[in-house]
Amino acid sequence: MQILAIVVLASSLIFTGCNREPRAAAISDPHTSITTPAGLTPATSETAAAPSVAAGRPEPRDRELTLPAGTTLPLVLDTPVASDTSRAEQLVQAHLAGPVTVDGVTILPTGSPVSGVVTSAVRAGKVKGRAHVAVRFDTVTRRGDVERYNMTTSALARTAPATKKQDTLKVAAPAAGGAMVGALFGGKKGALIGTGVGAGAGTAVVMSTRGKEVRLAKGTLVNVRLERPLTIRVPHA
To answer: Of the residues 6, 125, 185, 237, which has the fewest C-beta atoms closer than 10 A?
Structure first.
């Protein structure tokens, strides 16, 4: 009986071990696949840690466009200029009265500030010498920008008109008047004396009177031309 009991117990242990081995192997098998629900992807450490990068667009870069020599710049004076009040090297401010374009592209928009200096200011003389004033603009800034561009332009120059005719009248009129008065009181001799006296008075008036001055008020519209090409950086539209 004891031998039979030992045999039965051994058989039972062997049967139990055989039933457990396949299950353990199924769990520990590295090739065993795990089924996930449809539409879901198993998360991994790599995909979870990968950041989402948005595709960025490059910033548009400015382009350089050139105004050729001879281009006209229409300006409005912001600083008054005059032959009798301005001084050489005095700063003069102005702005563009209209846009400056090349091939349909606006390089310098209306209102772009321009600056320069007085290069000559000569007051009218009493005897001779006509009044003269000149300005040369040398920098421009594209409206809305801060960068200033050096440029070379034609001079803005103005000279007062000659006054010879007016001076002749100033001498002749008193002379004629003196001759008439002299003739009334002294005949022919008196006329000659009166002419000399009148002419002298007229000459004195001319000698003490200056000619016309040149004055360009604030808001005066003027034109200058580029003497050299001017390259400006213009943003893309």
So the answer is: 237
How many whole angstroms separate alpha carbon 86 and alpha carbon 9?
Answer: 128
Q: Do residues 10 and 4 touch, judged by C-beta distance below 8 A?
A: no
3-state secondary structure of 77: strand
| Predicted model pTM | 0.57
CA atoms within a 13 Å half-sphere pointing along the CA-CB vector of 108: 26
Instruction: Write the CATH number of the domain with boundaries 63-161+211-234.
Output: 2.40.128.260
Query: Is 109 within 8 Å of 143 (Cβ atoms)?
Result: yes
Nearest to 154 by CA among 168, 169, 134, 170: 134
Q: What is the pLDDT of residues 198-225, one digit of tens each?
A: 445 444 444 445 579 999 999 999 999 9
The three-class DSSP label of residue 215 is: strand
